[in-house]
Amino acid sequence: MTLTSLNRWKASAIHLGISAAIGISVVALMLALWYPQHYFAAMGGDTLIMLLMGVDVVIGPLITLIVFDPKKMNVRFDLAVIALLQLAALLYGCSIMFKARPVYNVFVVDRFEVIAANAIDDESREKAKPAFQSLSLTGPKLAGALEPTDPKRQADIVMSAAGGGNDLSNLPDLFVPYDDVKARAGQAAKPLSELVNHQPQDAPVVKSFVAASGHAEDTVGYLPMRARNRDMAVVVDRKTGDIVGIVPVNPW
Known about the structure:
Helix content: 40-55%
Largest sheet: 8 strands, mixed
Structural class: alpha+beta
Number of domains: 3
Number of strands: 8
Order of helices and strands: HHHHEEHEHEHEHHEEE
Oligomer: single chain
Radius of gyration: 24 Å
């Protein structure tokens, strides 16, 4: 098959097929590495993906449909320019997804906070323990955040958080391993019956989760999980604080 044997519709269809294959492969990789399980919906990945796919999969083939003419001397150049523009858009979209990926799920007092890479305070990260100085490339790490002992810094964080700035959950120098705080998480967990009472329409989802988990309902509880796009519920063992899983149900 040569370019001269194609019309604009065939050329656009081929371009669409190639673009779709590349787009699906990139999205699958993102889901597997950066946005595992329920974090994709929690962090608004669906919106970002729609923008990425719209630009990369739709616009490129549409431009090909408009400009393709096998009789043009510079048709190969036109296609090369379109491909380069698509590649640039794809790389830009991937960089946005990369910067917005969740890197920590932090237990703070009585809830979890999902923190994106671009929400981590870099100055705090430089002072953090070695385990919290790097940003995960394979989904969020579990951590706990403890209030500082310095009263002045406590006050500064309260003022910052009130103004939409840094809070405990995005200051890695205050992070500790989740194992250090999981007992507190277990104690703070609320009965799943309370979650069902809040969201009765989601009762089947909760019951199905409990049945699949292999835990008795009275041995587990839930804690709210705040995220950029959609809050969910983290189910924990009420005795040990170990995380059983995430239920895509509004915890409020």
